[in-house]
User: Fold these one by one.
Assistant:
Number 1:
Amino acid sequence: MAGGVIVADSGGKQYHSHVTAYVIVTCIVAATGGLMFGYDIGISGGVTSMDEFLSKFFPSVYRKSKDVTSDTNQYCKFDSQLLTLFTSSLYLAALVASFIASTISRVFGRKVTMFGGGIMFLAGSLLNGFAQNVAMLIAGRILLGIGVGFANQAVPLYLSEMAPPHIRGALNIAFQLAITTGILIANLLNYGLSKMERNGWRWSLGLAAIPALIMSIGAIFLPDTPNSFIQRGQNDKARQVLQNIRGTEDVNNEFEDLLEASEVARLVTNPWGNILRSQYRPQLVITLLIAFFQQLTGINVIMFYAPVLFKTLGFGDDASLMAAVITGLVNMFSTLVSLFTVDKFGRRILFLQGGIQMIICQLVVGSMIAAEFGTSGQGDFSRSAGNVTITFICLYVAGFAWSWGPLAWLVPSEIFPLEIRSAGQSINVSVNMLFTFIIGQVFLTLLCHMKFGLFYFFGGFVIIMTIFVYFFVPETKNAPIDEMNKVWKAHWFWARFIPDNAAGLGQRKSSTYTPLV
Ligand code: BGC
């Protein structure tokens, strides 16, 4: 057990808890879930730029990428639907799997879902590592996608149900930190393994088995969450787990709240129908748009295709993979900025500052590429132009990493009332995956047709989303989850949707919370 007793005020009652070893293990499991997702995001771009991989599975792309004749259009040399399908098929599978996972985690528990996710991911990584043809590659990607869908549905739920209330926010961003760590590890491995004479790509793809094994084994040994036990009628086990994870016998207040919350949730038999009611309109609209907008920042153009993009900009193989490592480092370290500031400065400041930074960077990158390649796609990047471009790409990644990266997972998870929270989470995951798929699938074609304008295209979306945040996303920093209706009620636009008798509006004696916006 680490640390002393913490008395946290939640829902007007006092919860007693220590930060126990169980909670720390919880973080590690969450981290493995994030690692699997991140490893996957980072690995495919590097692999698809490895010559041996391309020549074996995508020979026509390989030939085009090696074509140095003067009429080669730089924007189009990697454009291949099959190549993009390799990257993006995973996200389509994850989208479907996240709905299945929500039922499995309700009926069988979070633990089983995480275990299932780990095993699927393991099977996918083996299939990919030993792949002999494109069909095996894509089947492997689909299994990996099911693993990601399961993990992204269950791990954040598991985390927030295990975490003591006073560290829940930080733990949420720790999930994104794990995603970025996974991306960085993948970038580093790609860099090292691309130097292997043969089969470097097999190791890159096959080593995904390690985070998968850690997650599967972790899931076997971890207890399920108290909420999940209660949901399945095992109240004694729930109380026991709660005592263990809080490090104290005195868990009555929290236990009663869990029972009560699960009673309320049980009254709502159809969360999918309920979520459409007008009183939930603010949460629904904001979640749909946040998940959609996060992908329309264009971040995954960098995460998936950084090496391919850098090659397009005229860097050599090695320099391209190295540049991906640099963006990976920037991504991971910048996430720490939000972890340490999100509860102090609030979500809105991070969203707005990060958004403005991204817009400026996208304009600069688009203009640099326009200046060097123009619309014909002919020419070469000079070293200095390449360096300026990479610098602005890094500043763009940093802006994302302390704003839309973590906040797109944090904000939707904290604005829904309990009765529709898990349905809300499914919507968040699936919309995110859908647009991850679409961007992954169309990026190389878009680059080929929109050329440098692609960066202005995503920049335009960041302008729209920054204006949207300014007017429509209220500050949720420090707002107790069960008093979120006060936030909507104080908002110039959303107030009209919240009935005057909505839950959480009455002044509780113990409540000192006043909305900020
Ligand atoms: C996004 C991913 C993205 C990653 C980059 C996550 O929050 O959902 O699509 O690749 O951040 O760090």
Note: Residues 64 and 77 are 6 Å apart (CA to CA).
Number 2:
Amino acid sequence: MVTMLRLKGKHAFVFGVASEDSIAWAICKSLAEAGVILHLGFQKRFMSRVFKLKDQLPAIAGFYPLDVATDADTKSFFDEFSKANPGIKADIMIHAIGFAPRECFDRPILFVDDDKINTAMTISANSLQRCLKHALPYLAPGSSTITLTYAASTRFVPSYGIMSMAKAALECWTRELSCHVGPEGHRVNAISSGPIQTLAASGIPGFDKILEHVEANAPLRRNVSQEDVAGTALWLASPLSSGVTGQCIHVDAGYSITMVPSNIME
Ligand code: NAD
């Protein structure tokens, strides 16, 4: 299996580890198992949590602060990485970053203030462009960038609010950026994950009810796990998916293909 993936000795930037529950942490574990060397970007507010995880994964070669809220703080991650790893280029970039201020969920979308909307859009959507722009000099030819999205980008999910707009924009960035960097052989794809209990998800009102609903109605009659998402990320990171770019791949136990819940027939 590890031989098939052809990832041994490759390097990956991974952004979005905040706790053991983070989707990005499951991706780290899968990449590490495949022999990938990891360079993590962490948000300072999660520093102590992230550093506790460090000892669990010898594949982690370095940690550098990353705050995608500003261009300068995004660039500084890559400056620090290149100082510590001269000449090293990464083959994979995992962008598992999402954030919206509390007000985005507490107020009806019609009344959310501009600055809060802009923060959600900058961090959850436009940061993909920001990360890729600064990463490009440090990406090996044929690299694979993977971002994380949610199906509220195209359909109404109560309480997801401004994040729905952010995910729609993120998926559009995925397509646009894949066309921009594609001629040089770089790939950009999105994984649309079903709901998973994580720190970010805990901020979404009624999240437990969404989990219950998906478990009852998804074709597989279950929710997905971080490991389900990590499996697809591993495939997208590897040359097994070499012809795939600009796509949004649903890892959601099939929920996104349903429209009318099965239980109306009961
Ligand atoms: P998480 O809370 O573990 O991860 C969110 C990450 O975003 C954290 O590591 C945090 O540090 C990072 N982040 C937030 N603001 C940042 C900033 N300014 N600079 C740098 N990093 C910043 O939660 P998660 O659920 O693992 O989220 C990862 C991604 O998956 C997000 O994009 C989320 O929207 C997406 N997603 C999650 C679910 C779900 O149900 N959990 C479903 C679909 C998509």
Note: The longest strand covers residues 139-149.
Number 3:
Amino acid sequence: MCGIVGYTGSSPALLVLLQGLERLEYRGYDSAGVALVEKGELYVDKKVGKIRELVRSLWGKDLKATAGIGHTRWATHGEVCELNAHPHTDGSSEFAVVHNGIVENYRELKEELEKLGIAYRSQTDTEAIVHLVALNYEGDLLKAVLKTLEKLTGAYAFAVISAKEPGRIVAVRYGSPLVVGIGKGENFIASDIPALLPFTRDVIPLKDGEVVDLRPDGVFIYDFKGNLLTKDVMHVPWDIISAEKGGFKHFMLKEIFEQPRTLSDTIRGYISRDLSLPFSLKDFRRVLVVACGTSYHAGLVGKYWIEKYAGVPVEVAYASEVRYSDMQVGEEDLVLAISQSGETADTRFSVLALKEKGSTLLSLVNVMGSALDRESDYTLYTHAGPEIGVAATKTFTAQLAVLYALAVNHTEDRQVKMENLLRVPHLVEEYLSNSEAVRELAIRYADRRDFLYIGRYLSYPVALEGALKLKEISYIHAEGYPAGEMKHGPIALIEEKTPTIAIAPKDRVYEKMLSNIEEVLARKGKVIGVGFEGDENLKKLCTNLIEIPPIEEDLTPFLTTIPLQLFAYYIADYLGLDVDQPRNLAKTVTVE
Ligand code: F6R
């Protein structure tokens, strides 16, 4: 979590840092700050709140520094306040550090440093880094950082500047993402590629255990022992336009409406060839899907498809639960990690532990060059482009598309199934161009404090995902539940003011869903149905019906998901909430 940016060159660094920070704000927005080497001295400014508060504070200041570092924070250690905001400086204000991740042994380090008479100013784990660098400094920032690394444990990325060496930034990656951007006479670092796109598309994603010494005219990458490494520069295929709002009020809305294209790009990526995997799912005793949040929900849908078409048992587990469990895995198991960012700490570290036990690691990620991409035996990509809204939307449906392609990969009529899948983007487009009704419905229900989302079979994970979207951006309590389980407890929650969203496409459990809807109605509950156009049974039964184009059973999750994304979006927007950056959240969760 948190976003780091750094610049060294000949232009005013501040402008580059602020632009970069704006693009990283999705990673955390509790506070923001910059440190520059201005006229031989460190200049630090930091403010609680979003980047705009920092911009306000810096407004009109004529800062000419051509090197600096910046940070946007998602608090882990220490409350949200200016003292805990980054950058942090040493006692003599000669060194500044920005940090993402966690220094796990910070308590011991603090004790050691305090014994040496070093006074702490913040409650953060980060402050240890800057004091150690200052303590280890003997005229060479790189050497001071390398020596500091010997003392740190945890997972982190950080960047340091020093007033003693203007124009030099030393940055480290160990468990949290960091990318180097290569320019002409200027170079950059950032936590994520989109922050670099206004300046360069030539990047080097650092690996864990690498340190970069960044200067205006050179980039030198070392391992933690100080050995110089040779690295390839990667050219990023996205352009900046694809990371802009394109006339939409929020990134989330833009990303929802992008789905016909992102689905078609993803499906086309796999349609004319098989998945280029040197194995079949059938070669394994079991597929173990490991993921968090929305990616976990995609995994639940994938389970049904893989079990149906590949005939292999599939287990789906929350990464945070796997990590400290005694899960039995071995060579006979395929671990499938699903992660939009490819950087989620829970997912990465749990699947790496499973890989250690001998299983094969296949990842499904949206970000090429991300940690998971590099750490896996094999990777499949969703071609959804950068997703900026904190709530995952287009990457969820793109994950579904790849999971479907994976499930049918070795079926005899694979090609027919994939051609059929290509109908999905058109149907999603058809629905989106006619989706005004869901906005009106959302406004009508925006005053409710609790919602239930129910579904069965493929619609059960969709119910979970719909509920997650609503709670994370509108702060309304929502629970996703398997419809058949309602009678075993949650049905007690039903009352007039708690609407139930029932996902009921015409599939194998349709009749069962109708009965579950009746059960809710019998308790005076209001039901918003999501079903096929022209479904008169549902229309009669439900208080309101969201109609989607009819589609075969297998592919229903693609269509049922979209109105639920819109429903959550329109409620949050109507309530005037910060849709793209909901409170307490961050897009990429690189802490445990
Ligand atoms: C919800 C959401 C999160 C992520 C989760 C995993 O809208 O975005 O629940 O799905 O944090 O992130 P990735 O997929 O990057 O591993």
Note: Residues 292-295, 339-341, 344, 347, 391-392, 468, 472, 588-589 surround fructose -6-phosphate (CB under 6 Å).
